Amino acid sequence: RVLGDKHPGSVKAAVLGALASLIDVGGIALKPFVPQLQTTFVKCLLDPNRAVRQRSAAALGRLVVLQPRVDALVNDLASSLEGSAFDAATADDARGVRQATLRAVAGALAHAGANVK
Q1: Which DSSP symbol is given to 90?
Q2: Gene3D superfamilies from the xrefs (predicted)?
Q3: Residue 63 pLDDT > 60
C-alpha cells in the first residue's frame, strides 16, 4: 500500500530499495513472496518517477534468482511494452517506462536466460 499513488516518488523509491535489499539478505526464504513482489515491481515500472522505475527494474532482476522459471515474468513485461499503459503518460514518461521495462527484461534474461523458454 505504501507504493500507492498517494505517496511521493522518494518514499516509493526508498521502499523499493529496502525490498531489493531484503531479497539480497533473505534469499530463498522469500520464495513464497515472489508472486506478490513481482506484481508490485511490475506495477512500479509504470510509475512516472524515474527513480521508482529504475529501482523496480533492478529489484526485478534480483527477484529472478528466486524463481526457476521466468517465462511468466518475461511474458508479462513483454506484454506491458505492447499494452495501453502508455496512453495516459506523456511522451517522456512513456519513453522512461519503456526503458525501465526493457532494463527489467534484460535483468531477467541475464540472471535466468537459460530458464526462459
Answers
A1: -
A2: Leucine-rich Repeat Variant
A3: yes
